[in-house]
Structures are given as structure tokens and as C-alpha cells.
């Protein structure tokens, strides 16, 4: 039976927003197993997608060409009988793999010098980039100038069985029967996307005053631990799990959460795909480009004259787009969500 190969982006949020592409591929070829080639740090997100048959962890170093290693890996892929490959990263080195593996149909965006390596080439409009869900989902159809809006596409969807949720909470020492609020204070892209730690701390104190039994967990990578330490110092009683949990456990905790408060980050999009109630905080990025899709979701964005600047650091030095979103503004949409638990 022919198989389909999807080559994952390197970012967790992008991987989640590519999930509707898999839904469309499954609709078109219900009998073709879908494999995903992904970096190890992104693989747990793909394992939570029902459409994925096998996740193959990429053995390559980030940024390195490693031509010999790619050729050897492609030879192994050739044995799996792929009819199609969808190359989601825009780089040359990932387009090499399906070409070296002799996969007949190789689909992706034009990217960097990929003519010949890909034989079904899509093009985005740099002046008006496609929303991320539309960007990836478009690959399921022939190349076109116009693509469906996110509202016309399947929503990103992840699935974590309750037994996995219970196991994750037990490992970390949280209680299944108590309300759980997850904060995601980090942002891999840069500090401009981070809501101030003082605001997260103020929101934690507001929540704990209203709901003393609530558990507030801070999630993120080891890089986010200093930021999370600042929050815990200002709001004792909050659980700092940054760098402590695996991504798989973080996904399971988010699946159990009664609410999630997050910067524009990969964990935001995981929460969205798990359909958790979300308060999403945007500053230098545009919420219309990569919004949350949960049934209950609020995007806080001031729309200042200088935003979206899409910069890693505030180019004007004032960071008003995030500082002027107060803890009370985030608490307002959280109140009815937590009152129902």
C-alpha cells in the first residue's frame, strides 16, 4: 500500500498548525498511511495526531547539510514505499531527502533553490502572507493563487487519552481533581513576544484569591526557567515546571487544563489544538496570522501603531504592546471559565 511522507517544520507551533493538512490528506487517501519525519523536540506533537501512522525522528543536526547522512537516511526511506512527500520546511536540505529517496510526487513551497527537488511547487505572497493553517493546508490541493481561509478548513486537532493525562499529573505531583490553570510565559522567537513576568504574577495572585484550590503550572523549556523563576518569586504557590516536563508531559497537562494563558508560542497552539479555553496574548505578532481555534478563546492585542512589528526585540525599546495588556484584562475572560469548575 502506498504511503505518504510529511516532513515536519522545526517549530512546535508550526507543526500543530500543519495538522489540518493531514486531515485533508486522510480524506483524499483514507487507506494511505501517513508518516512524519520530525526533529526529536517536535515529535511528541505529531504523536498526538490521530492521522499519523509512524513518527520518524530526524537524525540530523539543526542547520547542518550532512549530505552523506541524508543520502543514507533517504535509502532507508526508499524501502517504505512512499508515493508522495510533503516538504513543510522551506530549506534546500529537507527537499533533498524525498528526491534522494526517489519519491515520485514531491510537494512544497518554492523556498530556497528547490526546483527539480520538488515537482509540485506552491508559491506564497510575501506582501500578504497566507495564515499559517491555510499556508500548510494549501499543499493538499493543486497550486493556486487563492487558498481557503482558516475558517473554511478543518481545525488543528490533537488527542491525549485521559489515562495519559492522569499519568502526567501523577508524575509531576499535581492533583487530577483540582482545577488546573496553565501559564506559558516563554517565547522561543524572542523577548518581544513575552508578556511581562510581573503581569503573569499579578494574574496568578488574582486567580488564587478567587480560587484558592486552583493549581497554576508554568510550562516551558529550560530556556524559560529564569522567566518562570521570576513569576514564582513574586507569586509563591505557583508550580514552576519549565525545563522539568518533557513535551509529551506538557501536552498531557495542557489537555487536562481548565484554562491556558499563553504568549504567542508553540504551547499556545498545542492548547488550541486540544480545544482548551485560552487567553492568548499578542504584541509584536498579528493574531489573525496564527490565531487560537478553541471553542473558548480570547486574543488580547492592542493593535498599536507600531505593531505588528514581528521583531525579536522591541525596536523602540518601550514594549508597550505587551506591558499595556494588564493582568485585569486577562482575568476578565478567565473569570467565567474558572467559575464553571
Automatic annotation (TrEMBL):
Family label: Belongs to the glycosyltransferase 9 family.
Gene Ontology BP terms: lipopolysaccharide core region biosynthetic process
Assigned keywords, A-Z: Glycosyltransferase, Transferase
GO molecular function: ADP-heptose-lipopolysaccharide heptosyltransferase activity
Keyword Glycosyltransferase: yes
Principal EC category: transferase
Keyword match Transferase: yes
A Pfam family of this chain: Glyco_transf_9
Protein name: lipopolysaccharide heptosyltransferase II
Any one annotated GO CC term: cytosol
EC code: 2.4.99.24
Gene3D superfamilies: Glycogen Phosphorylase B
Organism this protein belongs to: Noviherbaspirillum cavernae
InterPro entries, A to Z: Glyco_trans_9 (IPR002201), LPS_LOS_Heptosyltrfase (IPR051199), RfaF (IPR011910)
Catalytic reaction annotation: an L-alpha-D-Hep-(1->5)-[alpha-Kdo-(2->4)]-alpha-Kdo-(2->6)-lipid A + ADP-L-glycero-beta-D-manno-heptose = an L-alpha-D-Hep-(1->3)-L-alpha-D-Hep-(1->5)-[alpha-Kdo-(2->4)]-alpha-Kdo-(2->6)-lipid A + ADP + H(+)
Superkingdom per UniProt: Bacteria
